[in-house]
Amino acid sequence: ESRLHKGREEENVKRLAKWVLRAVLMLLALALAAGLAVGAVFAVRGYNLYRQAADEMPLEQMVAEIQSQETYVPFEDLPDLYVDAVVSVEDKRFWSHPGVDPIAICRALLYDIRTQSLAQGGSTISQQILKNLYFTQEKKLERKFAEVFGAFALERLCTKEEIFALYVNTIYFGSGYEGIAAAAQGYFGKEVSALDAVECVMLAGIPNAPSAYSPDASPSLTAQRTEQVLERMVACGTLSERDAQALSEQTERRLGL
Predict the structure, then answer these.
(1) Fewer CB within a 10 Å sphere, N or C end of the chain?
(2) Which of 51-65, 157-171, 178-192, 240-254 is predicted with the least confidence, judged by mean pLDDT?
C-alpha cells in the first residue's frame, strides 16, 4: 500500500510538472505573439514616418545637397586613421552590415532591459545620419523603425564610402563646429587631410558628447574620451597596444595634462 501511495504521488507530481510546463509555454507564446503584434504596429508607424520625411525631402536630394556644399570633404581626403577610429568607436561592423546591425541592437536591448532605460539604441552610422537629418532626437520606438527603413534606403542609394563621408560632414563637433572640415580648422587650423594621428583620434571621440568632450570645454574629458577611442581601436584590431599607449601620452601632452 505504501508503494502504491508513493507511486500515485510521483504520478501526480509528473502531471503537475507537465501542466506547469504547458502553462509556461502558452504564456511565452502569448507574450511572443503580443510582442510581434506591437512590433508590427510600430513598424508600420515607423515606415509612415520615414515616408513622410522622404516625401518632404527625398533622400537623393538630401545627399546631393550635402555633397555639393563648398566645405564637403570626400572620403578619399579623410585620413585612414580617422576613418578607423570613427568606425571602431561608432559602428565596428559598418563595412559589412546592410545599414542595420542586429548584434548591436540585441546588445543594446539587453542593456536597456537590464537598466530599465533607453540609454542605448544600437544605431549604425547609417541610422545616425537619418536620425540627425530627418528626425528628432526623441527616443520613440516608431522613430527607431523609421531610422531602420531610412538606413536600408541610404545603403541602396550610396556606397559605404559615400555614407561615411555624409556622416562626418554633418555631425556636430562642439564649439560651433559643424562637420569635419570646420572641426579640423577650428580646433587645429588644418585641412582634414593634414590631420595627424592625435588629432584624428581626438576628433573621432568628440561627437559622442560634443559639449563635454570639446577641448575648448574640458581638456581632461577630451583626454578621457580619446583614451576610450584608443581602447576601442585596440579591441577592433585597428591599432596596436603600443601605438595606442604612445598616442595616449601624446594626447595628454598636447592638452597640457
Answers:
(1) N
(2) 51-65
